[in-house]
Amino acid sequence: MTDTYRHQGQRRALVRALRARGIHDERVLAALGAVPRHLFFDPAFEAHAYQDKAFPIGEGQTISQPYTVAYQTQLLGVQPTDHVLEVGTGSGYQCAVLRRLTPHLDSIECSEVLFARTRQRLAAMGIVGAAGAGLHCGDGSVGLPARAPFDGILVTAGAPGLPPALLRQLRVGGRLVIPVGDARTQRMVRVTREGPAAYVREEFEVFRFVPLRGAGGWRS
């Protein structure tokens, strides 16, 4: 696993492009500038790694485009002491970015194939230990009750609505960032829990994600 001067230069150019598109959180930009995105690609497709676009990773899923990763992460507002849950580990790229912002991260993936592949990759990169602590395989649409409550929950797949289980697992003051809509396009939503039964919903830009599968997502 090599990270050359060329790769580092490509990341600097990517960060400049993200800043020009409105990403202003310097911690988020530094995280994207530090994570070698090309290591999440098959070597045959490395030329696509630093283009600002999504790319298929198999099992009907994609690695999100860098702008989307930066946008969601900025909305989440991660602090170093926050306990964060990522729903949809996928390739592990978003997970690696979040780990740059807080060591208190859990990530859950529904695909056993992707889970096994990504756990091995993240361990080889030193992002998680050899045992894959913090990585879980299961239905992320129902969250991770045994590890709740969370200061932040970030969902990397499009949902038909707000999964009730994820709302319940937010700490008071915690934020849920999730794309909500139909199977074609979704609007990015941030929900902040302000009390035991009080939530504030904000809506942002329109995106296109793969469907969130499971009991709290799309069932078919």
Please give a structural write-up.
With 220 residues, this protein is of the alpha/beta class. The chain has a domain of 153 residues: Rossmann fold (3-Layer(aba) Sandwich). The strands form 2 sheets. Strands 5-4-3-6-7-8-9 form a 7-stranded mixed beta sheet. A two-stranded antiparallel ribbon has the order 1-2.
Topology order in helix (H) and strand (E) letters:
HHEEHEHEHEEHEEE
Distance between the termini: 38 Å
How many DSSP H or I helices?
6
Overall geometry: globular
Largest sheet: 7 strands, mixed
CATH arch. level architecture of the domain at 55-207 = 3-Layer(aba) Sandwich
> How large, in whole angstroms, is the Cα Rg?
16 Å
| Helical content class | 25-40%
Q: Which residues sit in consecutive blocks of at least 5 with pLDDT less than 50?
A: none
**Major beta sheet, strand line-up:** 5-4-3-6-7-8-9
Class of the domain at 55-207 in CATH?
A: Alpha Beta
**What is the strand content?**
25-35%
Oligomer description: single chain
Mean pLDDT: 94
Structural class: alpha/beta
DSSP, total strands: 9
What would you say about this model in short?
This protein has 220 residues and is of the alpha/beta class. The protein contains 6 helices and 9 strands.
Task: Provide the fold topology.
Elements: H1 5-20, H2 26-34, E1 55-58, E2 61-63, H3 66-76, E3 84-87, H4 93-99, E4 105-109, H5 112-124, E5 135-137, E6 150-155, H6 164-168, E7 170-181, E8 186-195, E9 198-207
Parallel strand pairs: 3-4, 3-6, 4-5, 6-7
Antiparallel strand pairs: 1-2, 7-8, 8-9
Helix pairs in contact: 1-2
